[in-house]
Amino acid sequence: MEKPGLELASTLHEIVSRTVDGREAAMNEALARIGERDAQVQAWIYIENAETLREAASTMPADLPLAGVPFAVKDVIDVAGMPTRCGSTAEPDVPRAFDASCVALLRRAGAVPVGKVVTAEYAFRRPGPTQNPRAPGHSPGGSSSGSAAAVAAGMIPFALGTQTGGSIIRPAAYCGVVGFKPSFGAVFRDGLRQTCESLDVIGWHTRSVADTRLLADVLLPYPRPDAGVATPPRTVAIVRGDPDNLLEKASERALAAAREAFERHGIRCVDVPFDRASEIAEIHATIMHYEFARSLSPVVQRCPDQVSASLLETVRKGFNIAAQDYLAQRHAQLYWRDRWAELIGDADLLVTPSTPGVAPQGLASTGTSAFNRIWSALGWPCLHLPMDTEDAGLPIGVQLVGRYESDHQLLSWATALHGMLLTGE
């Protein structure tokens, strides 16, 4: 889908190292990429006035860490002056008065929100119109489809997304970009249209782990534990999944190639049968349905003809869950969140599939979150590392999972590990 010879938008690191004129040029190139590519990709649903954006980029103080960096925002997160439609006509097409907390923090650091990108309906199942820029005719994933696609198509250096089950990691895997889901609660959620109070997390898509770390310095509430030096882990646990979620050959090969690369660099790799996967997946399902039903009940009651049949069915199912069952699963969620050693042993981090396979054909489905939702239930930080493409040219990679609130450590390890995967040395 990309035109031959057309360059990608600059990375965060490239933009912040430029002069003031260079930062305005970064906004111009982002707007140019959007104009050239979005008719095909259909990632954007709202773009701010171009002159307003150029002025904002050029007048940012030069000493800010993200001065002049343009970015996209998933359309469940508020941006002042822009509507938040949540992928649904049930939401009014009116501008929001205030930024979400995460957007305000990025503005404070000098970044400039260009506009809003497509989400599945209320960040759930019904896909939007977005195409996969790396694999025409295949799903871009969801629900953060516009976020991953805008970055993968080179239209923007980073985009905010959200995850309840697998909505950051899966689009990252299908579109071939880096996707980061921080620990639960790490990024403030004020201004997010929440659907699941105990699961929703704000994260982001970029084209490199280095760019992801720059954003973590702005958005995470705790400082880096080191000086930013990337060191490899000593031991990684390889978790293939469970018998209920079989891997396709592409994901099998990616996991095997990652293991081979790590062991070649002296990293100890151990197989860990994650025998709690089904139990934790059930925890996720109960919490998600119960909370989703109550969050979306006002919309369903007022505008039942403006929401999808799958959303209506999920709300119905959620109201059939007994309160005592929901509370029992919430207690189980919190119990297991801090019990890393009991589940994983002495491994520094986990390496798992990001998805069962490559992006599925067609746009009717956003794919399965089978290899993401258990980590979302636990609230552990996750990162998708793109590796290569399989035989048909579809992106593939692996997922790294870290301990709760070990986000900076996970990103440090990811920097070292991604280098091993990309160089093949």
TrEMBL record:
InterPro entries from the UniProt entry: Amidase (IPR000120), Amidase_dom (IPR023631), AS_sf (IPR036928)
GO MF annotation: an example: catalytic activity
Domain Amidase: 27-411
SUPFAM superfamilies assigned to the protein according to its UniProt record, in alphabetical order: Amidase signature (AS) enzymes (SSF75304)
Location of region: Disordered: 125-146
A matching Pfam family: Amidase
Protein name: Amidase domain-containing protein
